[in-house]
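Lab notebook, bench 4. We co-purified these components, and the gel suggests they stay together. Before we commit to crystallization screens, I want a quick structural picture of the whole thing.
Request: model the full complex, all chains together.
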Amino acid sequence: MSSIGTSLLRRSVIVKETLIHKSDPRTKFIFFLWISIFAYIFYDYVLTAIFLIGILLLAMMGKILKRVLLSVAVIILPWIAFGVPILSVLFPWNSTLMFKLEIFGWQIPFYYEGFAWGLTWPLRIGVCITSALLFYLTTNPASLIALLFKFKLPFRFIYAFAAATQLIPLLVDEAGTIYQAQLSRGLRTDVGIIKRIWNFLILIIPLTLSSLTKVQIRAIALESRGFSAPVNKTCLYDIKFKNIDYAFFIGMVIFTLILIYIYIIYGFSPIVHLKQYFIAG
Amino acid sequence: MKNVLSKEVVIYFQNFSYSYPTKRNVLIDINLKVYKGEVLGIIGPNGAGKSTFCKSLNGLVPHFYGGTVKGNVIVAGMDTLEHTIAELSTKVGIVFQEPENQLSGLALTVEEEVGFGLSMLGFPRELIKERVKEAIEKVGLKGLERRSPFELSGGQQQRLAIATILAMKPEIMVLDEPTSLLDPIGKYEVFSVLKELIVEGSTIIIAEHEIEELAYLTDRILFLKEGKVISLDEARNVLSEISKLKEAGIDPPSITELTYLLEKELGIKIDKYPIKLSEAVKLYSEVLKIK
Amino acid sequence: MKNTIIKVEDVWFKYNEEVTALKGINLEIKEGEIIALIGQNGGGKTTLAKHLNGLLKPTRGRVIVKNLDTKNTPVHVLTNIVGYVFQNPAHQIFTSKVYDEVAYGPKNQGLSQEDIEKRVKMALEMVGLIGYEDTHPHDLNYGQMKLLTIASIIAMQPEVYVLDEPTSGQDHNGRRAIAELILKLNKEGKTVIVITHDMKFVAQVAERTILMANGEIIGDSTTRDILLNIDLLEKAAIKPPQIVQLCIELKKFGLNFNCLTIDEALKTFSQYIKK
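Here is the predicted assembly.
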């Protein structure tokens, strides 16, 4: 029977008919790699912010802007809010003074290097996350599986990935049933921490054992349907490049050339002119 | 017994014995032949070896489980010891007891699940589409093609499993207690599909506890107990051996058992025990009206 | 006159906005009854059963268990009165010894070591698993595991037992063991409610049968009345036991028998013939 969990997992992909949705998942995946690499190559918070805004515009085109903004804000805004002030003061490579603030009678110096670092890294991560979300939220599960096939990943890996998304919600359901079964034997929920850990075991053990049994049953069913046949598995899904994808690729090539030009002429920090290149940080 | 014209042997157990790594002597010295187009029922208490018997037909026993084997099993001309489970899956399809746990988990829709076996064997997409369409119609799941397999009822999921096998067009279909976890409607749905397949002349092996249904579906019945063959005979003969069945803890069809008990109680002799309801109605309407 | 032990008053239950699983259920269960709860999956049997020990609370209406309203009573208090045995033993078993498994319930009830030992012994005796105290539950066969899960509830000494499909997946031996156990419990004055699809089993153990469909009770009467009511059963797409089917067909020949089980038919037919 349909479980709430299954539908939640399916609702994570927002089904709409935008250009972004229609484009091939390979394009979106390559875009994610491409823009993440460039965000890493350049150490420039303004440029990185421009990348981020570009991706958000694409997200808007894909009608998933709210979802993406929410997800990325939750991660990078706190990071910036805490990281920037702390690093501006305490970053080991600080040298250029911006200003001094009087706090509790102390003169605290705020330096530029820490500030830039505290801003650039979250933005870089933001670029990765938003471009990944752009890929994930506009790709339906069928296309995703087709993508893995096109990448010629080993079939067992594709199977593990796809089956996990469908079978984990069933586990969640079952955990609920086990919980009810143990409640029926007097499992107490109004208890202290130690008892709660013990309660957790009482739920996990049956869940694990039951899962192991299910895995075995599934394994023999799979084997009986030719799972281990040493042939190329037929992928029942199809993904093809369309005009939007070619447009995307052309766009990426053009931007690559522009960015290479900027890098050669202006270096890795074209807009804000940061002097040091902090790789690992 | 149904007129099996060809008398072609499709399954041949030759002195077959099997022990799992952790359980010994699950099947002991099995010798039997199954013919093309036959419907063979398998009955026996839990632990008799019914499931193991079924799994010996497509190589799960011994290839998946390991263990020790004596003798051999020849299925559709292939010795199960010398062929992989994948190879045998083109000749033998098994439907298991648990509707949800035999779903692949890979397919997002019913259509894709039905095509799963074929896609594992690398069949071309167009051929898969055709076979899937045929199979879905045969099991009565038309209209549900785009639904998720996990949204179906138990009976629908079992019919889906049957369709997945049908699409692979095996020579033999094996069902290991397919209805034991289903509600009455689910059982009815599965048995109806089986009746259709039987009419078309499929070779079917079915292990079941629903003994009253087996009386209708099967030509012969294999009665297993503690790994040994107790009897292998026409359904009527096996189901009429009331004391043997009760000794093994199996309930015969109620009407058959009733007839046996009435015989004893009244000291009369009834020639042919009814194993189907219609037969019982005929018998009792005559016997009781005669009074 | 038997006392009412559970009262279900106009209970409605919604899982969410779209699914209303129970629509206005009214029911009285008296002490010492053996009731079969039947109907197709999705009809509301399990949902209703889970209201009896407070696992689920009604969206509307109330369930009174021995004068306790389930809405205001914690589940662990209700489980002392109503024991619920789930269908799949794997969902319960988490220990490595039969003894520990059966002792878990009484432990939760806060009993002393001595009392727990007594309860475990009593429960294992009842189900016929004495001697298996140190066995690992996974070394038991399926039928024994089922008996183990029932034993672990018996050890809690509830007054009402709810058994969710105790015979599914079992062979005839297993079914017989369950039937005997139910009759044993009933002899001790316990109330037993069995959710099942096995009509032959219903005819053997249950005096009263409740038939549910689409979240409503469409039949609540003696087992004989329900199983002989062809129209009602047809509505719920259920087939009565074979003996009942035989009797129904024989009515067409002017023979009026109302037997539920083989034993009844044996007695009735042989008496009829001897006359």
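Chain A touches chain B at residues 1-3, 6, 10, 141-142, 145, 159, 162-163, 166-167, 170, 214, 217-236, 238 (CB under 8 Å). Worth comparing against the SEC data before the next meeting. Chain A has a mean pLDDT of 86.
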